[in-house]
Automatic annotation (TrEMBL), chain B:
Phylogenetic placement of the source organism: Bacteria, Bacillati, Actinomycetota, Actinomycetes, Micromonosporales
Membrane topology: Multi-pass membrane protein
Alphabetized InterPro entries for the sequence: ABC_BtuC-like, ABC_TroCD
Similarity comment: family membership: Belongs to the ABC-3 integral membrane protein family.
Localization, UniProt: Cell membrane; Membrane
Gene3D superfamilies linked: ABC transporter involved in vitamin B12 uptake, BtuC
Alphabetical keyword list: Membrane, Transmembrane, Transmembrane helix, Transport
Residues passing through the membrane, by range: 12-30, 61-78, 90-107, 132-156, 168-185, 191-208, 220-240, 246-266
Main location: membrane
A biological-process GO annotation: transmembrane transport
Any GO CC annotation of this UniProt entry: ATP-binding cassette (ABC) transporter complex
Keyword Transmembrane helix: yes
Pfam families: ABC-3
Protein name per the record: ABC transporter
Length: 260, 286
């Protein structure tokens, strides 16, 4: 079954169109990475899929339902690029992760034993159970990022959408991360994640999509690290990519920013 | 405490205690969202409502509720659009509110300076039995909403986009915060005064978070500080004949200084032994 279906999507902010004619299909159980240079529109793409950026043209379906009519948000876990702006008041790791239960519980029901158990389980998956009562502000950047993953996992979603979860994250957190995502995928979860470089998540990724200037420039098995190309047989250039954009297939993922 | 045998003092005290509890319970969300000054702005707008009430011989509390709710909803709509002009639009609304209020009060039959001062800085003797019923009813409604919807409001103020992706009714919750802010400002106007109302939403929260680690504990401690400061403020103001709002705010600020000192002391105690126990990971030899 198709979990995310994007057809001829155009989206942007104010007067500026960022995404043009984007097609993307993510099936149940897929692990899809979105790659591309800074400013190419990766975050805009996932945020549009989640309904945070308005659709201008084209269609988005989530779990077979048009996004506008989609109501089962408990099936989607979102991990934003960083912690939200609101942090004027201290909040514990446990409190932040507990907000991941709201979609499943609804806002009228007080939290119960199932919610507390799910929060613990999610924190265990990212190795932060012992920090449950600590203020989030006392954690390292990588640990804060792990907290956000735990928040998404706590809702027991079917689809995880992550925006550069590993950017600027320490090695321990990278590993905790890869572990949690591997477990999620092994249990049949679907993952759509924006990455700057494949790094330790490389073995997990089934398919990579390269965004360039708001279009899908390339789609196929993820490129091998250290400059090795993916086998040409598994590669296909997206029909919308023109000559210039097709050359992006040539890059090694870690050089993404330098390529243009 | 023979002051408390006067019915007007008892009413003022009851009103202050309700506000002392409700204002920080709402204020914590405003602080979390870094909108600490919004209550102050709505207070400016409420003054126009007072002017309308005095001019048309309606209850000033009622007209102030209506005008400030309209103002708060307008502010929320501007904020939602998130454009750079938002800051300026707010300034225009606030200054328009206070200027309009001063002019309208001046045009009314009750145009004395004393009447204006009552609304700006609060007064012990103006709370009528009808007022206290309104304050109790609305104050309880605000308090219940803030406590019942705490998980949802926390999620909203902590990360609005995440709340949206969680399927929460973000717009409704934002309007709920706007409307409850306007209501709290108006019911606090009689005792604390419009110019100091915001202090009662913000200062107890600022004081509490010096000694707390989580959101829930901050909310509980802030409400405790709020109710103590408001109660002590009214009693003290009655006995030394000062303005109740200003007295309350000074007590809350004293609590802030106290918790800041306590927090700093506690952090130093915790930090000192750790510095001695942990050896450096790497030792460099020159
Ligand atoms: N909230 C916003 N308002 C206006 N422009 C934006 C906003 N967010 C991103 N952009 C612009 O959209 C383009 C794509 O940004 P983004 O999707 O964040 O890229 P990426 O995630 O690939 O680095 C950039 O040119 C950026 O400046
Ligand atoms: Mg991005």
């Amino acid at each position: 079954m198709s979990v995310v279906e994007v057809r001829h999507l155009a989206a942007g902010y104010d007067g500026r169109e960022i995404l043009r004619d984007v097609d993307l299909s993510v099936a149940s159980g897929d692990v899809v990475a979105i790659l591309g240079a800074n400013g190419s529109g990766k975050s805009t793409l996932v945020r549009t899929i989640l309904g945070l950026v308005p659709v201008r043209r084209g269609e988005i379906e989530l779990f077979g339902t048009p996004q506008r009519r989609f109501r089962h948000w408990e099936r989607v876990g979102y991990v934003p690029q960083r912690l939200g702006a609101g942090s004027g008041v201290p909040a514990t790791v446990g409190e932040v992760v507990a907000s991941g239960r709201l979609a499943r519980r609804g806002m009228f029901r007080p939290p119960g034993a199932a919610d507390r158990a799910a929060v613990h389980e999610a924190l265990a998956a990212v190795g932060l159970v012992d920090r449950i009562g600590d203020p989030v502000s006392t954690l390292s950047g990588g640990q804060q990022q792990r907290t956000l993953i735990a928040r998404a996992l706590a809702g027991k979603p079917d689809l995880l959408v992550l925006d550069e979860p590993t950017a600027g994250v320490d090695a321990a957190s990278q590993e905790a991360f890869a572990g949690a995502l591997t477990e999620f995928a092994a249990n049949g979860g679907t993952i759509l994640l924006v990455l700057h470089e494949l790094g330790p998540l490389r073995p997990l990724i089934g398919r990579a999509v390269v965004v360039h200037q708001g279009r899908i420039a390339h789609e196929g098995v993820p490129p091998e690290p250290a400059g090795h190309h993916a086998e040409p047989g598994h590669d296909h250039v997206h029909p919308h990519a023109d000559e210039e954009k097709a050359t992006i297939c040539e890059w090694a993922p870690t050089e993404g920013t330098k390529a243009y | 405490m023979d002051l408390l045998t006067y019915p007007f003092m008892l009413r003022a005290l009851a009103g202050a205690l309700i506000i002392g509890l409700a204002a920080p319970a709402l204020g914590i969300y405003l602080v979390q969202r870094r909108l600490s000054l919004i209550g102050d702005g709505i207070g400016h707008v409420a003054l126009t409502g007072v002017g309308v009430g005095l001019l048309t011989h309606q209850s000033p509390v009622l007209t102030a509720v209506l005008v400030s709710v309209a103002g708060a909803v307008a502010v929320e709509l501007v904020r939602e659009r998130g454009r750079t002009s938002g800051d300026l639009a707010l300034a225009l609304l606030f200054y328009g509110g206070i200027a309009g209020g001063v002019v309208l009060v001046g045009l009314s039959d009750d145009a004395s300076n004393a009447s204006l001062m009552q609304y700006l800085f609060g007064s012990l003797i103006t709370t009528s039995p009808a007022d206290i019923a309104v304050i109790a009813g609305l104050g309880a409604a605000v308090l219940i909403a803030m406590l019942v919807f705490r998980p949802a409001l926390f999620a909203l103020c902590n990360d609005e986009e995440y709340a949206r992706v969680s399927g929460l009714p973000v717009r409704t919750l934002n309007l709920l915060l706007a409307v409850t802010t306007a209501i709290t400002v108006t019911i606090a106007m009689r005792t604390v005064g419009l110019l100091l109302v915001s202090a009662l939403m913000v200062v107890p929260v600022a004081a509490a978070q010096q000694i707390t680690r989580g959101f829930r504990s901050t909310m509980a401690v802030a409400m405790l500080i709020g109710i103590c400061a408001a109660g002590a403020g009214v009693v003290l103001a009655g006995s030394i004949d000062t303005a109740p709002g200003a007295t309350t705010v000074l007590i809350a600020l004293a609590a802030f200084l106290l918790t800041t000192a306590a927090g700093a002391l506690w952090h130093r105690r915790r930090a000192t032994p750790a510095a001695h126990v942990e050896p450096p990971d790497v030792v460099l030899h020159a």
